[in-house]
Predict the 3D structure of the following.
Amino acid sequence: MDFKEIYKVYLFFSFFTNTFLNDGFLGGVMVDKVKVQFYPLDLTYHIINDKAVIYLFGRAVDGRQVCIVDEDFEPYFWVVLKNEEDIEEFVRKVEKVKVEEKKDVASVVKTVVERKNFIGEEVKAVKVFCNLPKSVPVIREAIKDWDFIRTINEFDIPFTRRYLIDKGIIPLTLTEAEVSAYSVKSRVDTFKAYKVKQASEDSIKEPRILAFDIETYGSDKGRIDSKKNPILMVSFYGENFRKVITWKKFKTGHDYIEFVEGEDQLIERFKEVINMQKPDILTGYFSDGFDLPYLHERAEKYKIKLDIGHDFSNINFKRGLSEAVSINGIAHIDMFKFIRRVIARRLETDTYSLDAVSKEILGEGKMKVDMDNLSDVWDNKPEEIEQFCEYNLQDSLLAYKLCVKLFPNLEELVKIVGLTPYDISRMGFSQLVEWFIMRQTPEFNEIAMNNPHHDDVGKRRMQTYAGAFVYQPKPGLYKDIAVFDFRSLYPSIIVSHNIGPDTLNCKCCKDKAEYAPTDKKEYYFCKDKKGFLPSLVKEIIERRTRIKDIIKKSKTKNLLLEARSEALKVLANSFYGYLGFFGARWYSIECARSVTAYGRYYIHKTIEKAEKEGFKVLYGDTDSVFLSLDGKKEEDGIRFMEEINEELPGVMELEYEGFYPAGIFVAAKMSAFGAKKKYALLAKDGSIKVTGFELVRRNWSLVAKETQEDVLKIILGEKDNDKALQHVQKVIKDLRDKKVSNEKVIIHTQLTKEIGDYENKGPHVAVAERMKGKGIEVGAGMVIDYIITSGKGIIRDRAKIPDEVNEGDYDSDYYINNQVIPAIDKIFEVLGFKEEDLVGGGEQSKLGKFFK
DNA sequence: GAGCATCGGGG
DNA sequence: GTGTACGATGCTC
């Protein structure tokens, strides 16, 4: 054991003197409870003396990192009985429940009876407290089949989240605790708390952000293997701090490069740097999925503990389809996850590589270095390593800048939803909505609804419903397009029509029911009592309106307010999808159906009116209408919009999105939730706005990818359809004539498991088998490159290793039909071109149908 | 057409 | 840890 274990006992007087609000002095006598104010960042709990104790970590107002230990919180769940007369008997019985498993005992500690709201009904509910958090599901399981129970709820709320909600503590927001001395093994100053509560709306000023990134050996082999390949360097970037640590020495003028003896020393230094820098936020790009798992694997090899938690705990791995890594006390934010889940909609880029994302958000990309050379340089040319250190540092710098720039957005979501930055940064919209609702349950005295059982999820998935209305555009190019949008269409419908599970088909309004315009007219919503969810949506909309007013009035740009407005908008817009999401607690397909029915109703009304007034309707989708001015002026369009708005109820509003001199519309594929948007517009400033074209994935060949890009550029930028057509014809002809180099027809596909484990063999598996036969080592994680060669038989038998394929010996038809044409067919379809036009007249053969 | 597999990000 | 992904698309059978 060569690391220092620090046991700290604090002397209060010295610590508090100039730090805290202090009402502890009474008549010159010091009482030993004092107040500490801090911004919570993260929390965990430990079992101490058979009791769950909360550890709340944060940055105190004086800049120190602190840990507040709160013993005053117990796990519980809710029970609602069929008959309220049975409560006494139930309470007597449940308080005796004990479940013994091995050494552990799960027991009921006490019960409390309270009046609560449950799906629009007032009920007497029993709050059942358990000895430990993990006892909650055990006790629930033991009693769930008891006869007098109608429902058991809130038995699966993680203990730390329950704590934040019930205590009304919002991370990153000024919190005050009454504390006294506490002695515990900790990296930060720790206190025992008596009272913990939110002190004000104040937010943490400037959290200490530290970004890191690693580079590993073996990047040229197309395989990431943390068991074999060492970490070569690790970089850090923070405010006034930059460092690259590596273990091969070379001459360098960079003072930020530090040399250590080997990979094990690198890992030790990694830990030391974090402990010394004391970040509030540790960030990386894909650090959940790459850097931290890789570090963990390498650390295990040397039996090094990655015990960087404030409580000396190891970093925690949540394994599963998506990995996540948490560090007790430090908010670990994987910028990739946050950007892809929350920011993505606002971005133009289709790929979320660090380079693409940074270029768009920061206007600065990665350093251009040929990473294929890293291993070779490392082994043979140490004098050239420096450039890779620069590259490594740049990656940390980008992650740092992304985190700083997007922190306001994360912070606002944290403050609205009320969970830790770690949790919030990993949530998708449905989760954000759900936990926002959960956070509001105490104020509305609501019992939360339950997550669906596995069987229910299956049933819910089967249920479909009519989606949005789509006015299908006629394929082609159009001039002078005015675009209108309903502002927050679905949220405004939910509020205006009081749509929620607890107002659905209520008994009180049966006689005066106003049915939602679904086909069967079977759903109506309460006219008298505001529903729980519509009340929440209304509050969100009103809050946002207030904030937008402030933004409009203020002359300076306020990033925080803009982020808050954006967060509220995103949240409101997600409620509808949440109601129809199979995994939702407050799932209600009836509500979701009603929302879309009203949506269709209003867009139909708008289209009818537009046509009546002589506009040509080009396209409409969900909440937007594209009109061709058809000789009319832009002002006429705006007047039309104002007329519509006079007729709309309540908060609903049609807005003017913009004017476009030209646009191309693409027939869209239908799905359960309506048609996908697919169009490209030319804006007044000459820029091209593309919506809905498929992502180019790595298992597309270069020839397909390049052709798609070129065609869009030519049609939209140069407005020369024939030139675009000629371009595709040339690519197809080149493929036929084998003039396209093999390099451009290579397809890359990753092996996700060992080749023996495949039941269905894709082409890459067949190739991998053949590689193995040749003595090349293959395994899970490796990316297989292959070319589909000409010949007969199924695709996988014709997939070959690129080295084995003679130049031009690829299957032209495959690349034309399965790669190039799918990449551009929809574009040409809307221009009215036919397959023959693309492939060249007369040469019809085995080509698949162009129009599908 | 059902069902299985893979994509993403990272080096 | 009182929990965990997701939505789209291509290939095989």
User: Anything to note?
Assistant: Chain A has four domains: 32-205, 209-405, 470-682, 698-850. DSSP finds 23 helices and 34 strands in chain A. Chain A has a mean pLDDT of 87. Residues 470-682 of chain A form a domain with the Palm domain of DNA polymerase fold (CATH 3.90.1600.10).
